[in-house]
From TrEMBL, chain A:
It is a multi-pass membrane protein. It is found in: Cell membrane. Residues 1-23 are annotated as: Disordered. It comes from the Bacteria. It holds the Pfam family BPD_transp_1. It comes from Amycolatopsis cihanbeyliensis. This is Cellobiose transport system permease protein. Residues 96-314 form the ABC transmembrane type-1 domain. GO terms for cellular component: plasma membrane. One of its GO terms (biological process) is transmembrane transport.
UniProtKB/TrEMBL annotation, chain B:
This is Cellobiose ABC transporter membrane protein. One of its GO terms (biological process) is transmembrane transport. It comes from Amycolatopsis cihanbeyliensis. Its main location: membrane. It is a multi-pass membrane protein. The chain crosses the membrane at residues 7-27, 73-95, 104-128, 140-158, 179-205, 237-258. Pfam families: BPD_transp_1 (PF00528). Residues 69-258 form the ABC transmembrane type-1 domain. GO terms for cellular component: plasma membrane. The keyword Endoplasmic reticulum does not apply. PROSITE patterns: ABC_TM1.
Length: 322, 273
């Protein structure tokens, strides 16, 4: 190990050979200081930076939300007025419904398809690595880039989706114009991006399910579908809970896809009638376009409350189903 | 077990095709001229107009695409190196060193992992104004130099990958704690650090909401400048696609080089979860 410590060897070589005992005493003192304080030194950078730029803003958002606070200077304390206003604000409720609607449209098919894909990948076929890498391709793309691609694919005049609908005799859909159509278009992007990732998580969980469970089921004459619902799904429950919660948190923060989808001057309001404005977009609009920081912070806190509520509901449903 | 390989392979190949198609389409349109966009049937082979499109892209004044690329490259590299270093350092301390308050501090990290960062985005913006970092690259770098998720991941990894005997042996040999980290722990953590590094790079490169809040159009990140393209040139799909292609290339490159490790990392993390 001495070869790993050239620095020490050099330093000690100069003046310490003549007086070994003090050096050793000094050395052991330094050693004690080192073992006692190094751990704090190692975790300190994290807590300093995270404290200033992560934790403090998070807590301070609550404080700002109790103020009438616009650009420059400090705000006027108004208590819960922002929240009272928020509950009467149709745009806020519209954004809430849009967010929840797209959350459902994006998460449910995503996780179901991922389950099917994972169980197919779990059949022990050849060329698995290639397939695994293939389904992961979407998450390494730039979100904004893929937003642009899907915006074009769903274009009213130039888009491929309308082209294909034309083939089966369906009239062109103006995907940006209505709630349901824009929700579907935006959810497709989310589904496309995350299905493979979830499939890999399920696959990892499925691979740790003991084989003899399936063998016993086969002896009992259980069909593959029965095996899937009665063995696989219950055995990978923790992985399912994990993906549901992660997708819910991500879905509640949906921002980039709808923003890019709504090109032009109405981008941040999610279309001319706010048909696909999400809560994150609404928060952004209030804080960084209208410079109403207090109101924006109240929206941020409502997003947080909704996330916690949904996580709790997910958790309870999952536990009840056990 | 009975299997029907044709059906299984068929479904999986369909999944791969669907995964890859938007990226292929990105490439096709980026290499063509604007007048073919919207043709039916759509052109399925690349054209030869990529060079022209790239020239036009970098000349598009409102987008500042080159600035965006450089900014994102600097931010992504600096943030990645920093997150890997500080996360492995703190992860090692939490996994292997004993100190008062360790568990309480770890609980704080775990709790904050659940809370989305953008909840604090308005005060964060105020801090940036105070620091004079509005429209500066520091604004998209400094707040992200550490990561709670990174610390957690590295701690999990260190618990398994670093044997206590090795640490004791190094200690007996007189290594300082930092030297133990540098010569013993860090090499053992390399596979986990690689996965963390890849994810951090991708996340920083993809960051959108925060740059949009704190930067201006004259000093954008790459995703920001892409959004400028889509608002300013919203009919010019080839230009937007060319920008989107270039913005995706670094990520694809990373993926081609490290795809297997990424897959392995996700699956390993999943089993632990």
């Amino acid at each position: 190990m001495t070869d790993l410590r050239p620095g020490t060897a050099e330093r000690t070589g100069k003046n310490s050979r003549a007086t070994p005992p003090p050096r050793r005493r000094l050395g052991s003192f330094l050693g004690r200081v080192d073992t006692k304080w190094s751990p704090y030194l190692f975790v300190a950078p994290f807590f300093v930076i995270f404290g200033i730029f992560g934790l403090f803003p998070l807590v301070y958002t609550a404080w700002v939300s109790l103020h009438q606070w616009s650009m420059g200077g400090s705000g006027t304390f108004i208590g819960f007025e922002n929240y009272v206003e928020l509950f009467d604000d149709p745009d806020f409720w519209n954004a809430t419904i849009n967010t929840l609607g797209m959350l459902v449209l994006a998460t449910v098919p995503q996780l179901l398809i991922a389950l099917v894909l994972a169980s197919l990948l779990n059949q022990g076929l050849r060329k698995l690595t290639f397939l695994r890498v293939g389904v992961l391709l979407p998450i390494v793309t730039s979100v904004a880039a893929i937003g642009i691609v899907f915006s074009q694919i769903y274009d009213r005049d130039a888009g491929m989706v309308n082209g294909m609908l034309g083939l089966i005799g369906v009239d062109a859909v103006d995907w940006r114009a209505d709630k349901w159509s824009s929700w579907i278009a935006i959810s497709t992007m989310v589904n496309w991006r995350w299905t493979g990732y979830n499939a890999l998580i399920y696959l990892a969980a499925m691979q740790s399910v003991p084989r003899d469970l399936y063998e016993a089921a086969i002896v009992d004459g259980a069909s593959r579908i029965r095996q899937f619902w009665n063995i696989t799904v219950p055995m990978i429950r923790p992985a399912i809970i994990f993906t549901v919660i992660i997708s819910t948190i991500a879905g509640m923060q949906l921002f980039t896809e709808p923003l890019i989808f709504g090109q032009g001057s109405y981008a941040i309001s999610g279309g001319s009638l706010r048909q696909f404005q999400t809560l994150s977009m609404y928060m952004f609009e209030k804080a960084f376009r209208d410079f109403d920081y207090g109101y924006g912070s109240a929206v941020a806190w409502m997003i947080f409350v909704l996330i916690m509520l949904l996580a709790l509901i997910n958790f309870l449903i999952m536990r009840k189903g056990k | 077990m009975r299997k029907s390989p044709v059906l299984i392979y068929g479904t999986l190949i369909a999944a791969i095709v669907l995964s890859a198609f938007p990226l292929y389409w990105l490439f096709v349109v980026a290499t063509r001229t604007n007048d073919v966009v919207g043709d039916w049937p759509p052109p399925l082979l690349p054209g030869d107009n990529l060079g022209d499109n790239i020239t036009r892209l970098f000349a598009a004044e409102q987008a500042n695409f080159l600035t965006g690329l450089i900014n994102s490259a600097i931010a992504s590299v600096v943030v990645t190196v920093s997150v890997v270093f500080f996360s492995s350092l703190a992860g090692f301390a939490f996994a292997k060193l004993k100190f008062r308050g360790r568990n309480a501090l770890l609980v704080i990290i775990l709790a904050t992992m659940m809370i989305p960062v953008q909840m604090g985005i308005i005060p964060l913006y105020m801090i940036m104004v105070e620091l004079g970092w509005q429209n500066e690259l520091e604004a998209v770098i400094v707040p992200f130099l550490v990561s709670a998720f990174g610390v957690f991941l590295m701690r999990q990894y260190a618990e398994r990958a670093v044997p206590d005997e090795l640490l004791e042996a190094a200690r007996v040999d007189g290594c300082s704690t930092f030297r133990i980290y540098w010569t013993v722990v860090l090499p053992a953590l390399r596979p986990g650090a690689a996965v963390l590094g890849l994810f951090t790079f991708m996340a920083t490169w993809n960051e959108f909401l925060w740059p949009l809040a704190v930067l201006e159009a004259d000093n954008p990140t790459v995703q920001f400048s892409l959004s400028q393209l889509s608002t300013t040139y919203y009919t010019d799909y080839t230009l937007m696609f060319t920008g989107a292609l270039i913005a995706t290339l670094p990520l694809l490159l990373v993926f081609i080089l490290f795809g297997k490790q990424i897959v392995g990392g996700i699956m390993e993390g999943a089993v632990k979860a």
